[in-house]
Amino acid sequence: MTDYGHELLFGTFITPTAQPVHQAVELAVVADRAGLDLATFQDHPYLPKFHDTWTLITYAAARTSRIRLSGNVLSLPLRQPAVLARSHASLDRLTGGRIELGLGAGAFWDGIEAMGARRLTPGQAVSALGEAIRVIRAVWDADRPGPVSVHGEFYQAEGLKRGPAPAHDMSIWVGAYKPRMLRLIGRAADGVLPSLSYLEGGPGDYATINEHIDDSARESGRDPARVRRLLNINGTFSQFGRSFLNGPAEQWAEDLAGLALEHGISTFILATDDPATIEEYAAEVAPAVRELVAAERP
Amino acid sequence: MTHPVRFGALVTSVAQARRAEELGYDLVAVPHAPDDGDDWTLLTWIAGQTEKVGLVATGLDVARGEPAVLGRAAASLDLLSGGRLELALTGAHLDEVTGIVRGVLDAGETGPLRFLGEHHRVPKAQRGPLPAHRIPIWLTGNDQQSVRLAGRLADAWVADLERITADELATAYKQLEAAATEAGRDPEEIRRVLIVGPGLSPAELTALGADTFLVRAAELPGLSAWETLRDATGPIIFRPSSVRAKRRPGIDYDGVPAGLASTAVEPGDLDYARVRSTYMRGGAPGLVLRPRTTSEVVDALAFVRRHPDLPFGLRSAGHGVSGRSTNDGGIVVSLAAMTTIEVLDESRRLIRVGPGARWTDVAQAIHPYGWALSSGDYGGVGVGGLATAGGVGWLARKHGLTIDHLVAVEMVLADGSVVRASDSENADLFWAVRGAGANFGVVTSFEFEAYDVGDVGFAQLVVAADDPADLLVKWGRAIEEAPRDVSGQLIMGPPRPGQPVFAQLMAVVDNDDPETIIEQLQPIAAIAPLYQQNVVLTPYTGVISNAAEGGYHQGAGEPVSRSGLIEHLTPEFARAAVELLASGAVHWFQIRTVGGAVADVPAEQTAYAHRSANFSVIVMGSSKQRVDAAWAPLTAHFDGLYLSFETDLSPERVEDAFPPRTLARLRELKHRYDPDNLFRDNFNIKAATR
């Protein structure tokens, strides 16, 4: 049993398809009205079938009123840390604090390189992400005197002006699976965001994820509870329970409550582009998981 | 002056942007986001909360990221905002950045973008997404180098009257013109954007020589004082010389009638990528006219009449296999904007539909009334092409062809006259339209009588085809013996070495009782061992909502497709069909069911006359020569063909499509309605000679 005591959040993972043009925005509106907590979008700037994710997030933010939004996750190699910091802070101020920063070290290097960015080794990518987080936090730290000063191997931000600060204490959630990145998250990030479909051993792999993060957090003097545990999930609503996240809403709720209580996972982001599924997830699953988890918590 | 005068407002909040939109400003320009925020984010936020005003961020520093990513972001914002974006760039190496951004936005160009500059290298980026309109790129900078760069590359050059005197501005405009001329451009192509204070009179503004004024004011003024400047210049379509250079010979581009000019697309236009090709056919037409009303169709046909030597294609939704709805260097009249679907008389289930609507849209629109209308097997097919040829669809055996429920049309004839045709008005034309419509005119609206259809059974089965000839015969027999509720199709591919041979069987049962559905499907499912089965109870919309949404056709090359109508799937036909499959010449072999209600209609009642057939056979391949050779042995078994799936242009195919008496009558009518053969590009019926 692991529980970090986080408030439970439920979100959607919406394909940022550029055709039909407004499909992704309309799904975010559906999620907003249905009462979900989060609308998130993947980021693959080398693929023209998708919208530019930041532009889409901003436009969707303008068309929704309550839901929080983030990348899931934004591709750091094709996004400047200082621009990420300022753009997220700007939108956070415009939306009254509805924005979080989902960040990834880069996944498809052929595509990244094809767009003109530099190919990094996995080790370099982890270091670059660590430097990026320092730059981002330094830009957000608007009240601190003097300019930003980060001398990294990958990012040099010397004399960069600080600000704006986000409207709320914005989280940096990082997509990660491997020990080095997980340790970085334990030291420096506010959340870990893997996809269940990439966990080779299934949900049980989350125990290892937690172990790396928790150890690293403690070593650097942080409370492991400062790192939110998120998970992208896939599932199918069906009349009779057949397998994990394939069954009626009550079965989903039990499956997810199990993950929350077993591994301390507190944010479940469902990949779907179907409005009815979004609505059912919001109306039937989310409250039931909250209830089941609340009953078990001290 | 070439460009109409526009007014923009400098804004730094959504409230100011909305105010500018209310006041009628053409543009809102974000000079910088407050508190060192991000300009692009603020501009996108404004885009999401305004409706029609143009959008630009005048201080966007290109150092914010890879130029290729900036190009994608620009395309996204332009798409999301409905084509309202203009892109102003500042910073270093703007020549390279502009090249990369344009390269990404030019999604209609073939091949990936490769740009190897001194400062920016893009090894192999995919292009796109295609923006909603050609995004003008603005450059800035008062120094001579910047001005010259703008003259060479930009769509607009921006100056700020707080930072430049009127005299310096005049000099800069001369430099701009000179640089443009040196680069082989028409200097008039470049818009002159000027940031001004609120107090200037129309005369003062005119004297400055700019065409776009961005007003900097704490309290945004109304536009009434400057209205005269805007009235003086009407909206015009402006095509830079780079666009005009791609025009094709023999087309009177400047003579396109005014109403059509605003929506016409020529080869250099951004929208060309969206309209040049069809679902299965690559094309390069010289001009695509997109009428929105019947009177614009009249104008379009008048224009086409003036170009008798060019190919002329008529397109509804561009799905057609046979239809020459694109061409090379000719004119296409696209009816895609004529998508009205309306109920005329609920008690008679009478609906009126535009030719550009797609069948999935028709199905969705009439589903709430409990009605349906059988069309083809794919929802992305347009109304016009199908409803002038036949319409062999998922409910054919129960309800007949689509044309069997057509009660009237409005159409534009070759001479430009607009007529109505039905059983009681122009009855002979109405007869001809139902099967040979493409030869007689442009139908601008169809009136159909729909029918009640509840939930239907939709079965998708995969069966073993170890003895494919036997399977064909058994399936044919099972279909012929099945109640009329059942319509469907069979699909087989060429045999592949080392893989089991199978066939896909699909069927729709027009009955909402699950037990009856299973009962009616049972004899079909029993013809061979089942590999897979999936049967669902669904509204008809669930069967026809299979069209891809969004996007545009990107067909390439020429499809090769042959069609034959056959009464029974005899063992002799089946053996010949199996040999055809074994030849490897075709990659698609499909048999659709007709018969039933289709055969209830007397052959002489419509121009579609081969009513006795129970099956429509379709093959597709890539080599015309090989497909024709493999198809030849089958032809003895056929009685007629269905034009919509035939691509062979030999005159004999017209004789296959129409029995002699039908064809003779069609030729008489062609002589009467289209003696000069305006409608010539698809299975042309030769006018009877007198």
UniProtKB/TrEMBL annotation, chain A:
Checking CDD domains in the record gives: Tetrahydromethanopterin_reductase
Superkingdom, according to UniProt? Bacteria
Which parts of the sequence belong to the Luciferase-like domain? Answer: 17-232
Q: Where is the signal peptide?
A: none
Give one GO term, molecular function aspect: oxidoreductase activity, acting on paired donors, with incorporation or reduction of molecular oxygen
Q: Which Pfam families match?
A: Bac_luciferase (PF00296)
InterPro entries attached to this UniProt entry: F420-G6PD/mer, Luciferase-like_dom, Luciferase-like_sf
Query: What is the name of the protein in this document?
Result: N5,N10-methylene tetrahydromethanopterin reductase
Highest classification ranks of the organism: Bacteria, Bacillati, Actinomycetota, Actinomycetes, Micromonosporales
UniProt gene name: hmd_4
UniProtKB/TrEMBL annotation, chain B:
Name the source's superkingdom. Bacteria
FAD-binding PCMH-type domain location is: 280-453
| Cofactor dependency | FAD
Query: What keywords are annotated for this sequence in UniProt?
Result: FAD, Flavoprotein, Oxidoreductase
Q: Pfam families recorded for this chain?
A: Bac_luciferase (PF00296), BBE (PF08031), FAD_binding_4 (PF01565)
Give the matching Gene3D superfamilies: 3.30.465.10, 3.40.462.20, Luciferase-like domain, Uridine Diphospho-n-acetylenolpyruvylglucosamine Reductase, domain 2
Q: Which InterPro entries match?
A: BBE, FAD-bd_PCMH, FAD-bd_PCMH-like_sf, FAD-bd_PCMH_sub1, FAD-bd_PCMH_sub2, FAD-linked_Oxidoreductase, Luciferase-like_dom, Luciferase-like_sf
Q: Any idea which GO molecular function terms this record carries?
A: FAD binding; oxidoreductase activity, acting on paired donors, with incorporation or reduction of molecular oxygen
Question: Which family is annotated?
Answer: Belongs to the oxygen-dependent FAD-linked oxidoreductase family.
Its protein name is FAD-binding PCMH-type domain-containing protein
Task: State the organism named in the record.
Answer: Actinoplanes cyaneus
